[in-house]
Structures are given as structure tokens and as C-alpha cells.
Amino acid sequence: DSGAIIKLRQIGNGEMKGLGTGTLVWPAAHVLSMYLEKHYGSGNNDKQTDSLFSGARVCDIGSGTGCVGFVAALLGAKVTLTDQDCVLFLLEQN
């Protein structure tokens, strides 16, 4: 456990504001982030999987707020975050 805390700006009802659905952290992003932390984080005792993300290249397509990509980066990956132009401002702020 690195003790890292990720704080992300979100915008409610982004799709109603013409921003699409990438303005919130979806439940699937929470689940995937927790999975990555549990199985590939420093608290994992399996040294073979500990190094899986170290130096790996990850492309997060449809990043939205960037939640999963930021977790991958904290695990050591070199991450590229992508999304639609209308959501990039939020991704850059986060």
C-alpha cells in the first residue's frame, strides 16, 4: 500500500451538458482500480506480478476522469490517457 490518495474532479450529468459520459468515475472504474491495486500493488506478495506494471505501456482509451490510468501510473506504468475533445479539459485538470 503506497498510501496514495487520488482525488478526481467530476461533473454530474455531463451527458445532459453536452460533455458525454466521461465526466464521472463509473463503478467499473472503481472495481478495475481496486483489482489492479489488489493484484499488482506493493501489498501483493507475488513478486512475479509485482513488476507487471513497472515500465509497462498502458493506453487508457476513453479515460474520462483518468481514474484507472492514474492507478496504472501509480503502479509504475507509462500511461497515455485519451478521450473525446469535449472531456479533455477535465482529464487535464485531474
- Provide the structure class: alpha+beta
Strand order of the largest sheet: 1-2
Q: Biggest sheet: strands, sense, closure?
A: 2 strands, parallel
Counting DSSP E segments of at least 2 residues, the number of strands comes to 2
| Rg calc | 14 Å
Helix count equals 4
Question: Overview of this structure, please?
Answer:
This protein is of the alpha+beta class and 94 residues long. It has 4 helices and 2 strands, in the order ααβαβα.
List keywords for this structure.
two-stranded parallel sheet, 11% strand, 34% helix, 4 helices
Quick recap of the structure?
The protein has 94 residues and is of the alpha+beta class. The chain is built from 4 helices and 2 strands; from the N terminus they run H-H-E-H-E-H.
Question: Could you outline the blueprint of secondary structure elements for this entry?
Answer:
Layout: H1 27-40, H2 47-50, E1 57-61, H3 67-74, E2 78-82, H4 88-93
Parallel strand pairs: 1-2
Helix pairs in contact: 1-3
